[in-house]
Amino acid sequence: MIASESDTIAAISTPLGEGGIGIIRISGNEAISVVSKIFRSPRGINLNNVKTHTIHYGFIVDPFTEEKVDEVLVTVMRAPNTYTREDVVEINCHGGYITLKRILDIVLEHDVRLAEPGEFTKRAFLNGRIDLSQAESVIDIIRAKTDQAQKIALEHLSGRLSDKINQLRQFLMRICAHIEAYIDFPEEDIDGLTEEAIKESIKHIIDEIKSLVEGYEKGKIYREGLTTAIVGKPNVGKSSLLNALLMQERAIVTEIPGTTRDIIEEYVNINGMPLKIVDTAGIRQAHDIVEAEGIKRTMKAVEQAELILLILDSSRPIDCLDEEIISKIIKKRVIVVINKKDIKSKEFKLPDSLKDKPALEISALMSEGINELKELIFKTTMTGRYTQEGLLITKLRHKVALEDTLNALNNALESFKRKEPLEITAMFLREGLSFLGQIVGVVTTEEILDLIFSEFCIGK
Ligand code: GDP
User: pTM of the prediction?
Assistant: First the structure.
């Protein structure tokens, strides 16, 4: 069957594994009639005739043999007030893989095809329920690692970013309209809009977009976490610090499938900012591995990291191994963690090369200074400008579109100042408008859409 946007689609929408319930979601014109063919209600209910947004108890059967497959609750939701704006049926069955798979197979025998990754959300976009930036935030809600990250994603889903972008687009459209009216009817006054006012308006939009772009670094950190490496020679207290950081929060451990157990990520929640600590397996195995291997691993973690927590042992003087590590990380964003302050030696002296890096004395073993360290991490990484509303963009795609808009608007402003023909200014403004439109999806290509929705998993 060639995939089409008018097909009825189905997928298992809950994670595969054992659970109390599992959900199969079906969306499209045939959703209700197909499920009605395989659903048997003890009260003889025919799903084709039920009211919208109602739930019905019964059994899913194999329609050829009438064999019962599972006891279920079926939710019937008719267009347009549904996730996809199409008819949607959700079958709540028992949450085991075999049950879910059998029901899905039976559904797929009836002119229904398996949904592609993200296809339910893509339909919500194509059918106009949400715009593109809202659709993208669905995946961020699902993947959020901290409350704060989830909150930002939910704000985007509720349309806060879209509202802001649309407000900027309208503002820009008004300027365009004025200029274009003046091009067409130069003898008329452009609604009292002076040259100065036009310049100021363009500058105002440029400024707003700049602050959105500047918020990206922070937004990205909330969304993806800040990749952090805990670095130091053996025995300085790396794994003690990791444990102290993790102790306050139940850690989320992600083992990346298909790799060795080297790459294990753990997340620490720092005021809602997820700190993604890399090579935690390496840190914990440090005692079993030879020094050269240790350095190699450290360097790999350092390369990936956006933040380095450099641990020094203050119970003894700095030695050449410390110096070697310092020389390798000095160019990166570093916080110096001076550990073992409970047994600090008089001979310990912070090397001059680290004098202008933020530093803090702690005792990982006694869990002293851990909150202060979290505070310092937050302050060091979350500085900079927010928009007035505190709105954060979190996606590279949005940042690129905003930067392209900025470019176009700067060109417009320059050409206006140089008193070039107004058509040129208008052309640049239109270009800016089109880049802004890419964020909410008024201007998109099939290719961009495929790229965005392929990030989703099946069933979303
Ligand atoms: P790593 O090799 O860098 O991971 O170091 P560990 O975390 O395994 O710590 C090495 C040793 O230092 C262990 O015996 C820890 O108990 C001890 N240690 C770690 N932090 C402190 C601290 O703050 N004070 C004291 N007194 N000992 C510590």
Answer: 0.73
